[in-house]
Write a structure and sequence with these properties.
The protein is an alpha+beta fold. It is built from nine helices and four strands, in the order ααβββαβαααααα.
Length: 190
C-alpha cells in the first residue's frame, strides 16, 4: 500500500464555511452585470445597486428605510415601506444612468410577498429594467391596503388593542387606516 504524498482534503472558502456566500450562484449573477441587492437588518431594509470590481464589489446607488424619514415616514420594515425604498432606489439609479439590474436575494429562500419583491416592484415602477415574474407581486400588500383593512377592523372592535398594535404609526402621526393614500402621496413626492 502506497503512502499519501499530499493532503486530499480541500478547505472551502471562509465565506462558504460561514454560510454567507453561495459562490456558484454569485458567479451566475455576476454574468448579468449590476445587481439589486436587498437585505433586511434588525432595524432597516437596505437596497443597493452593486457592480462587480476585481478589488471588491462597488455600491453605485443605495437607499434604506432611514432615507424615508425625509418624507416624514418612520423607520419601519413593512411591505409598503419596502416598496417606497425600492422606488427611491430606482429613481436614484435612473438619475445615475443605471437602468438594468438583476435581483440578488443572497442565501434567502424567496416566497410570495417576500419583502425583497416589494423593493423590486418599487424599482421597476421607478423605471428600471429588472427581470421578474408578475406572479410574485401582491400590490395590495405593497400599497399597504392589507394593513389599512386590518387597522380599521381592529379599531372598530377594540380601541386599546388598536393603539397597542399600531403605536409606531400613531406616534409618528400616521393613520394606519389611510396607509395606501400615504404611500401614493410619498411616491409622488419622490
Amino acid at each position: 500500500m502506497g503512502r499519501a504524498t499530499r493532503c486530499t482534503y480541500k478547505v472551502a472558502f471562509r465565506r462558504r464555511r460561514e454560510g454567507k456566500t453561495n459562490y456558484s450562484k454569485r458567479i451566475a449573477l455576476l454574468k448579468f452585470g449590476d445587481r439589486l441587492v436587498v437585505r433586511k437588518t434588525c432595524r432597516n431594509i437596505i437596497a443597493q445597486i452593486v457592480a462587480y470590481s476585481p478589488e471588491g464589489d462597488k455600491v453605485a446607488v443605495s437607499a434604506s428605510s432611514k432615507d424615508l424619514s425625509k418624507y416624514g415616514l418612520p423607520n419601519m420594515k413593512s411591505a409598503p415601506f419596502a416598496y417606497l425604498i425600492g422606488y427611491l432606489l430606482g429613481k436614484r439609479a435612473i438619475a445615475k444612468n443605471i437602468k438594468k439590474a438583476v435581483l440578488d436575494l443572497g442565501r434567502r429562500t424567496p416566497t410570495k410577498s417576500f419583502f425583497a419583491y416589494a423593493v423590486l416592484k418599487g424599482a421597476i415602477d421607478a423605471g428600471m429594467d429588472i427581470p421578474h415574474s408578475e406572479s410574485v407581486f401582491d400590490m395590495d400588500r405593497f400599497s399597504g391596503k392589507h394593513i389599512a383593512e386590518y387597522a380599521n377592523q381592529v379599531k372598530k372592535s377594540d380601541e386599546a388593542m388598536y393603539k397597542r398594535l399600531f403605536s409606531k404609526y400613531l406616534s409618528s402621526k400616521i393613520d394606519p387606516g389611510n396607509l395606501p393614500a400615504l404611500v401614493e402621496d410619498v411616491k409622488s413626492k419622490m
